[in-house]
Every structure is written in structure tokens, then in C-alpha cells.
Batch of 3 targets.
Target 1
Amino acid sequence: MPVTFLAIQRVLGYLVMLFSITMLTPIIVSLLFADGTWAAFGASFLIILGSGTLIWYPVRNEQRELRLRDGFLVVALFWVVLGLFGSAPLLLSTYPSMAFTDAVFESVSGLTTTGATVLTGLDDLPEGILFYRQQLQWLGGLGIIVLAVAVLPMLGVGGMQLYRAETPGPVKDTKLTPRITETAKALWYVYLGITAVCGLAYWAAGMGLFDALCHAFSTVAIGGFSTHDASIGYFESPVIEMIAVIFMFIAGVNFSLHFLAWKRLKLSNYIADPEFIAYVKLLGGLTLFVLMYLYLTNYYSTLSETFTKGLFQVVSIGTTTGFTTDSFVAWPGALPVLLILSSFVGGCAGSTAGGMKVIRWLLMYKQGWREVQRLVHPSAAITVKLGDKAVNNRVVDSVWGFFAVYVVVFGILMLVLLAVGNDQVTAFSAIAAMLNNLGPGLGEVAENYGSVDPVSKWAMVCAMLLGRLEIFTLLVLITPTFWRR
């Protein structure tokens, strides 16, 4: 079946128009703080709305249903187009003054919840711009596609294709409710509820209302953008740090489990989920190792500081959030590289976290152990299981295929950065941070990406998009099979 371009154009136009509405909240923030950026957001609203209308209007009567391959193309186009349109306020604003490459980099970084920034002097930026950056991450975390999946059926366009193309993880057909629209709404309500509770907790712990809302957006989205150059460390509050740790951990869990816990009012679903158990064990083990290392090397002067700084950085980097309260780059020995490597695992499938997802690593571990057992018992029929359920061999094969492509893409993009003059530490950590949607790296990109050359920034933009859409969603578009009738 060929790709239905007119149906795709109609959906894309509608989604762009929908995105234009997100320019209205920064206008309100700008007017409340009288920071003068409302005009840039107002112009961006008109540009994006007009562009979406031009895309949608000629095909407004197109009623054909989206198929699976159409869903992949819509999602890929949507994220690329949104990254470009999202840069509009940053380009039109007089402060900060940003070049096109930097504006697109910042926009894509926000929407993909990577959290890498080219900006400095965040404490002095207009509140409208600061709020907009945080809002980009919140919408990118779970909001836009889930909202679109809930809305599109009302327009006569099915949402399951978009849901399957967007949902992270190797198993994509699990629905929380019989109808995909209700599934999308359920996830949206859970996402909104956790954000509200997180914001209230920050506020109660001493953050101002503006900072509390902004950091709740980036915490639950596992984004990492902050309104301050010092990130969460700006507040110098162990209570705020522990609140962030709790909600970063929560956001790294499959949101389906949160929904089921809320619906059934019990926590048994968490305990019964093999991926959640593996997620807890990985973060727990990594935390214990890092704390012991920091303690034995006397890096911090007190035990409490060792605990709070160590725990925060482990959870932040391990869940690919990217908040910091201290420079983990300066930690002794192998710890900085170990934390960067932990981002390759990331959070659970169905969460807002980046990385390859815990379930994939769990399946690869089980498959590897099965091969060891087969060496001892060549004739035994050994199945890979998650809990008590056998995993289809096709799923296991897809996980290994994903891992292989992930490594190849990582290698190619790292070579691009090396070819244009970046040192090995910077190239390795930058691509790891981009592909895993982490944010902070090592070397020249430990604090900021402003000094990176334009070619490297565009390579990183590609890495961020590939990581956010889990590689195959974009790579499938360049295969002849996708376009074949």
C-alpha cells in the first residue's frame, strides 16, 4: 500500500496549527513579568498558525485513514517541523540574540527533552523565554503526540498508527483501555497530575512559584532545562534536591504502571513488573557504588553531602534528566564516564526518559544468559521470559537489531564530530548525551554547547531526533521497502 500523502499533509497541518496555541502561554507570562518578549511570541503564533493553515486547508476534506507507515512519516515530519517552528521565538527575540543554528538546536533540545543548551546567563534571561524553554520540554515529554492521538479520531483520523510510531519500547501494542483515545487521555491525565504534584512540592520546599512550575515541567519530562545556570544547585536546598530525585525516579517509570496504580489504588503492578524491578536494581546498585567511591576517596567533606550530591547526580544522569547540583565531570576516577554510560540504559519503556530503555537491556541480558546455558545444554529448549511470560523470539531479535543500529549510528555521528576537529572525549560524550537525550557531557560540552561548531551542532540535532524517536522511526523512512507499493 502506498503512502497517503494527502492524508499525511492534512494531519501535519492540523498538528502545526495545534502547536501554534502553545505560543499563547509565554505571551501571558511575558505580559505578567513585563519582559518585552510578548511580541516575539505573538509573531511566532501568527507565523506557525498561518503555516499550519496553508498546509492543512488545501486537503481539509481528505478523509482517508492513516496506516502504520503513514504514522511513521507523520511523527518524523512532525518532530522535524516542530523543531524548526519552535525556534521562531528564539530567532525573533532581541534578547537572547541567537543564530539560526543555535535557535534550532535549543528548540530541538527542548522538544526531545535532551536539555543541552547553547545559552549562558540564564539567570538574566526574560521570563517569557525561560518559561518557553521549559514548556517545550514538557510538551515534548509526553504531551503533544498523546494529545494528538486523543484529538485526531474526532477528525476522522485514527490514532493507533501514531501511538505505535511514537511509543518507546520494543512492545508497542499494549493499550491501557479498549480505545486508543481513552489510552491517550489516561496517560495525559497521569502526566498532568504528576506535574502538578511535583510543582506544588517544589513550591512548598521554598522555590518561587515561577521556578517551581518551570522545574516541574522539566523534571517530569526528564528534560533538564533550568531557569538558572547552576541548575537545581542554585537553590542550595537538600530538600529540593530530594524532591527532584523522587520525581525524576517516578518519571523514569512506565506511565502505564502509574495509571494502573491510580486506577486500582494499589502498588502491586510495580512489584509484578520485571522492567520496574530491574530499573530499581540498576539505579540502586549504581548509587551504592558511586556513594562508596566518593566516600572512600573523601571527595566531599561530610557524609550528608556525599549522600545528597552522589544520589542526585546518579538519578539525574541515570534517568537522562540532566539536572546537576555539582560538577560530576570533576568526580574522581571512572565515575564521570560511568554516569555517561548509565545513560545508555536510561529509564523504562513508556516513560519520558531517554536511553535504550531498561527493558531492552533486560532482554539482552536474558538472551545472553540463554546462550550461555545453550553451550552447556545444546539440545535444551530454553525460552526468554519476562516474569512468568515467555517473550516472542521476534521481539528478542528486534531488540538485538535495535542495539546493532544504535551502535552503528552512534559510531557514525561520533566520527562526524571527530572529523570536524572535536577531541575524543567531547565527541564521545556529546553524541552519547544527544542520542540518549541526556544533555550534559564531558570535555568541551560539560557545561554548555555554545562553543561547538555549526556542523557538530547539526549532527547533534540529528542525534537528538534519532534518540527521541528511537532511531527506527526515522531510519525506516530511508529504506526502499517503506516507499514500495
Target 2
Amino acid sequence: MQIEILAQPANTLARLTFNAGEEITAEGGSMVAMSGGLNVETSTHKRGQRGLWKATKRAFAGEGIFLNHYRAEREGANLYIAPVLSGDIMVQELTGNALIVQATSFLAHESGVDLDMGWKGLKSMFSGEGLFWLKMEGHGKALINAFGAIYPVEVDGEYIVDTGHIVAFDDSLDFSLSKAGKSWMSSILGGEGIVCRFKGKGAVWCQSHSPSGFGHAIGQLLEPIVQHQQ
């Protein structure tokens, strides 16, 4: 399968060109266009598996319940997919390792990759960005999207990232949540609040913009809806 990333980094979409018999699983609603020669099947789980419980866990993580499975019936069939928010897409090759992905950043994966909810403990409850993480592991390519540009940070020791800017990280890393400044007052007044401290050796992928921060800024500009009594 050939994967081309187009129009980076602001309005990115992916063009997938299949060999006959190849297949990919994508987030529901991500399809932009596709050629003939693709068979599409929609389910709540990975093809060939029972997955109602996994679908329920994905819903808790902020992902859609339904997944679309595209299988090529002929050589050269192609598919265009894109995320809901404007931003970048990265292709990550998994070789038996695991990747932890933030809610809403999953876009697609090849058939050799398994998608499940990765629970990282009660500390995730206080991140302000979501309660659950998604865990991707296996063998094959995974497509992950971000809000804005996406870039890797190699961690060898300790690294601090704002919780709203985390896209994904290697499962080899441990993390803890803490205040950004020396005191809670300085953290809150500085606009940073809670940050994530990664420790160990591995990579963290960050996004240049925060969806929650963007939503808060836009919300302040919207006029309230006034309902008139009839």
C-alpha cells in the first residue's frame, strides 16, 4: 500500500493506493473520496473480531463507535481520507511496539494493527483533556492526525508537554501530571495549568495548536442564542 500525505500541514489529507487484496480500517466519516474497486464494510470492531466492548471503550475515549473497513478488489484502487479538524497527518510504522494516542487523533490503520483503549490510571482524569487514551499495537502502518502541525520530540530522561498539545507517545514512556509553575497560582495565571511530565526513553508527538484552547477562544466570540417566547 502506498500512502501519500498531501497539503501539509494546515489542511492535510491522505491518499491511499492499494494493491489487490489489501485493506485498511478508518475512522467513520473520514472518507473524502474513493475510486471504484474498493469494498466497504462498516462495523463496531476490527474485521474478524467481536468488538462491542471495544467500541464502547472507544466511545468513552472520544472516538466514533463505527469503523469503516476498505478492501481493494483490484490493483491501483485509491482512497482519500481526512480528519475533522484542520491539521497534519503522520504515518507511523508499528513493528510489534505500542503507541498511545490521544482521543480524536486516530485516523486509520492497516489490518495488522490492533486498536484498543489504553487506560493510564486515575491521573488521566485530571488532565483536562480527556479520561482515556487509545492504544495501537501490532505490525503495520497507523495514520494519526493532529490539530495544526505535528512534530516529534525525542525524550531521553524527562520532558514536559502541555496536556492539550499531546498527540501520541511511545508506550515505553512513563508520565505524570503536575503544575506548570512553582505554585498552582502561577500555573493558573500563566495559562498553562496542568502539564504532563514524560520520563524514560522514547518519542512524544506534539501538535502546534490545542483543540480545547481553540474551542474556548471561539466560544468567547460567539453571541449567545436568545430564544424568544412565542
Target 3
Amino acid sequence: MKRFIAVQTVLGLLLMVFSITMLPPALVALAYGDGSGMPFVYAFLVILGIGMLIWLPVAHRRQELRIRDGFLVVVLFWVALGLSGALPFWISPEPDLSLTDSIFESLSGLTTTGATVILGIDELPHSMLWYRQQLQWFGGMGIIVLAVAVLPMLGVGGMQLYRAETPGPIKDTKLTPRITETAKALWYIYLGLTIACGLAYWAAGMNAFDAIGHAFSTVAIGGFSTHDASIGYYESRLIEMIAVVFMLLSGVNFALHFIVVRDKNPLVYVRDSEFRFYLFMMVLATAIVTVALFRTDTYISWGDSFIKGLFQVVSIGTTTGFTTAEFYYWPPFTGILLLFLAFVGGCAGSTGGGIKVIRFLLLIKQGMREIERLIHPNAQLPVRVGGKVVNHRIVDAVWGFFSLYVAAFTFMYLALAATGLDLLTAFSAVAACINNLGPGLSTVGADYHDMHDAGIWILCFAMLLGRLEIFTLLVLLAPAFWKR
């Protein structure tokens, strides 16, 4: 149909761009000489070919990309991305995954969820280890935002894609006058954090390969590791604290990082209401978990309780998913608290998952306003954040988002429980996937290897729903979307 020419053009181009990401793992295989590079070469050729088949029929036809087209492109591309990214997992003899598990692993990486179905990660070839980490890095900021900086040179506008892809409730705020420059600014911050994180890991004792790989997943708030024991493999408090710092930084709104760098003024962080609330939650949760771990004799010293508690609070609170301890065996109270903390997630405009800090802040302020209205029925009581009045339409949108989030979670929880899983496993698996967290509780604490296919597909949908922040995916189900 003529109205989908722009969508077809962008989808084809994006797939061709994505195919290039198959080449670095092939080069890693060549460098280590382990003969594991051919699955990535085959995947490159297949994805490139499909992209060209989609793009060539409309290559010389021009059509304006509308906002509703942006939503369709984002959803189609993430689905296509998940399927395309699964090819190396499916083709490769290691880790020898089924098609369903391959798609799960691919989507988990690209949505920065970090849940895995692979056992024996330490034994995987270097090319596959690199590929898993790389998936999260590209997925972290959104490969579409990367493409927004490239597509204008090909004659395709990007603002519609940016609005559909950017996380958080306030999407029209641009850092720079032009969308291309905005995308570049985001990626400069993202790349700068990745380089700094990688150098810090390397200086702290990681080898270069692990330092780069863990920098990818730390800044992406992904949680994939090159070892089964995750960050706990290194048994280094210095490495753990470096991870804590960069997880915290990556959970902050990247627009805020940009403003701090541009103005050369760190006080910008302190003035931001969302940042203050974000830190307050992390400090409060760390204090509660530390006391709980010590009082229940999970750890015998306050120091160990604090270090383990701090790491897991930041890792799960930002929805990263790294582990230094089997927290799913901790006292039930701490596990449930950490899981609920993941529902809040990172700040809007960060690489974190969850509902986002700013939305919870607005929900709290709206609740307090309703209490004040009961006391003063005739008073004009606007919702304010950072001293500024928040438009009522944004507050309404936040309530709508929260309602849909809870409804979607409940539906998938019941669907997963109906497949025969125990309630704690079903609850934590859906919570971990819709919040793009990764590790859950009970039998999905360490991995999802034992999850049946029906559960895997439900959780794939949960990961996509969480990554696209509900509205972007569900808007396609509205009949009004398809009307001219």
C-alpha cells in the first residue's frame, strides 16, 4: 500500500545497517582463531539480503514519515531485530539453542533484559561472548536512535522515530535544535561512559576482552556477562564498586548528563527532582537491605552486608541484573523488595527499564494532591516538579501508562501461571522481563534454561512490551491507528 512506502523504506535501511553488527564478532573469531566466525558471516549475508529485498522496490519512491509511521517502524524493527539477532545463536553449534531459545536470547540482549537460557557461558567461544555483550550495547540506547543520525543523510527524517523510541513521559524535549545532532549528542555521552567504564574495569584487573564486554553491558544496563558467576566471578570489591558507579550513572537521564557536560556544572544533578528521588530510593533501599542481611545472619559482618546489599540494590534497582551473590536465596523480604524496586527502574531518558523514576514521582505528587483536595476542595493545586507546573495531560498520560503496565503485567502473570509454573516463579519472571531486569526469583534466579516454550514466548512479549514502554506496542492494536 502507498501509505506504507515510508515504513518499508526505513525498515529495509535499518535492517541493512543492523547486518553490519554481525561483522565484529566474526573478526573476534578470526583474532582468536577458534573457527567460530562463519555463523556471523552467514547471518550478515541473510540480514543484508532481506534488508535489500525490502528496500529496493521502494528505493526511488519518497513519502513523508508521519508520527504514526514512526510507531509502526519501531515495533516492526524490534520484532525484525529480535528475529535477525537470533540467527547466530540458532546457526552456531555453540551454544546449540533451539529457535525459540535463540529468539529469547536475542531479544533479551537487544532489550537489555539480561535473562539467559544458556548454561556454561564460560565455555562459549569468544565471538559468541562478544556478540552477546554487543547486542546489549546497541540495544541500550536504541539502535534506532543511532540510525536517526544516519538516515537523514539518506533522505529519511528522524524526529518521528525519536519520539516513538525515546523512553520516558516527556519526549519532545530536544537537547539540540536538530534531531540528528540530538542523536549524536546522546551517543557521544553513551560512548564516553562506555570508554570510561571499560578503562576502569581494565585498570581494576579485568583483561581487555572482559573489560570491554562488561563495559558494554554495564552502560547499557543489560546484565549479560562473559562468566556464569557474573561480576561475582572476579571476587573484587574494587570491580564491584566500579560497576556500582557506572550502573548509577547509566540509570540517570542522559539529557541531564549532556546538560552537565555542556554547562560544565555538576550542580545540575542536584537541582533535578528526578535525580534526587532516584538517589533517595537507592540509599533507602540499601539501608533496609543491609540491615535485613545482617539481622538474618545472611552475612556475619556489617561490611559484607553493606557491600552485597549495595551492589544488588543498584544492580536490580537500575534493572541491570548483574549479581555478586545468589540474592534469590536471601530472606524472602529482601528478594521481593528488590523486585519491587525494579518496577521503579531508572530515570526517564536513561538506558534503564521499569516504569521510570519520574513517573513514580508524578504518581506520588498526584496522590498527595488528591489528599489535599479532600481537605481544600476549592483550592487550585497544580502538580509541580522542580518548581515547574506539570501539564495535566502529562499527568493523565502517566496514570494511563501505569494502568496499562499493571494490566499487562497481571495478564502475563496469569498466562504464565496457567502454564503450570509456581506463582513465585511466574510473578518474578514476568516482573524481571517486563522491567527489562533479567534475573528473577525461585527457579528463574540464575537462568531461564528450564522455562518451557510457551513461557518463553510470553516472556519475549513481556520484554518487548517493557522495552517499547507499553504505548508504542499497544497503539498498533487500536482500530483508530489503522484508519486513514
